């Protein structure tokens, strides 16, 4: 079986930055096991598989896999897949499409060169102590920002939001893999576990996502799903309206820009993240 595929860099202002994504077309006859094998083989942070395509109504259904497991929702795969569909697949190059993922249908629109998605309503889970983090990192209690809680948040995929008080603390961050893994397994509510460290200053945020997969401590270049959780946190604890850029990936030489535009009105969150995508390659995959 031959599958057409595309490779794009997502949340990137230029090629060879942001987060890599492989988008596999015509995947309706693949099993989940086969998709997982392909995602493991290409070994990007995530790969997507288009399992249904409605060209007439500009709709598609996709499944999302990391090298280790399936995701229910993930930002950079949705943004990147949408760019491919809007610019390479759908004949009329639409500015709006609907993309269905396991958590439901995601409205997508393109404004100039930015692809935007609207996130689901967030859920705010457990709050954790700063002292916990000093046990498995090089952080001191003074390295944490007091305005925001350390809290697990989800808009479909869950992450622990960890606010830091300086760029220095973010840049110099070191985790003990085994101790961090043990803590996450004890405290995180889902199997997809990640720690989203961030430093908020004025009109921008700098962030780092650290997680463990296949017994390795890894860092993600750009994490859209965690960014929706961060935007929710900022709206809840700081401001009722937000318009800024989240800079991620700088410390692993994959600079990324994730655009935030959201507001909180009457306990309803309007969370939108946007980003650019850079076309890298296309080909045929022998499945």
From TrEMBL:
Active-site residues from the entry: 46
InterPro entries for the chain: Phenazine_PhzF-like
One of the record's GO molecular function terms: isomerase activity
Short name of one Pfam family: PhzC-PhzF
A cellular-component GO term for this protein: cytoplasm
Family: Belongs to the PhzF family.
Protein name per UniProt: PhzF family phenazine biosynthesis protein
Organism: Flavobacterium fluviale
Origin organism lineage: Bacteria, Pseudomonadati, Bacteroidota, Flavobacteriia, Flavobacteriales
């Amino acid at each position: 079986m031959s599958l057409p595929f595309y490779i794009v860099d997502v949340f990137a202002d230029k090629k060879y930055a942001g987060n890599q994504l492989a988008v596999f077309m015509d995947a309706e006859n693949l099993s989940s096991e086969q998709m997982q094998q392909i995602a493991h083989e290409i070994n990007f942070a995530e790969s997507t598989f288009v399992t249904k395509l409605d060209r007439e109504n500009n709709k598609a259904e996709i499944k999302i896999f990391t090298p280790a497991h399936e995701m229910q929702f993930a930002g950079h795969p949705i943004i990147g897949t949408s760019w491919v569909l809007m610019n390479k697949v759908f004949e009329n190059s639409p500015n709006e499409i609907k993309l269905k993922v396991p958590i439901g249908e995601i409205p997508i629109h393109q404004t100039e060169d930015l692809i935007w998605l609207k996130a689901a309503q967030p859920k705010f889970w457990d709050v954790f102590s700063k002292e916990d983090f000093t046990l498995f990192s090089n952080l001191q209690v003074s390295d944490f920002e007091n305005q925001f809680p350390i809290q697990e948040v989800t808009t479909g995929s869950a992450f622990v939001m960890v606010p830091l008080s300086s760029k220095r603390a973010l840049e110099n961050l070191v985790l003990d893999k085994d101790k961090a893994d043990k803590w996450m397994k004890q405290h995180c509510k889902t199997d997809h576990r990640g720690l989203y460290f961030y430093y908020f200053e004025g009109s921008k945020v700098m962030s780092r996502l650290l997680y463990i997969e296949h017994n390795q401590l890894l860092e993600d270049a750009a994490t859209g799903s965690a960014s929706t959780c961060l935007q929710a946190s900022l709206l809840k604890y700081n401001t009722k309206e937000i318009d800024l850029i989240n800079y991620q990936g700088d410390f692993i030489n994959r600079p990324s820009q994730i655009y935030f535009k959201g507001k909180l009105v009457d306990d309803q969150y309007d969370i939108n993240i946007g980003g650019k995508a850079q076309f890298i390659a296309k080909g045929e995959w022998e499945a």
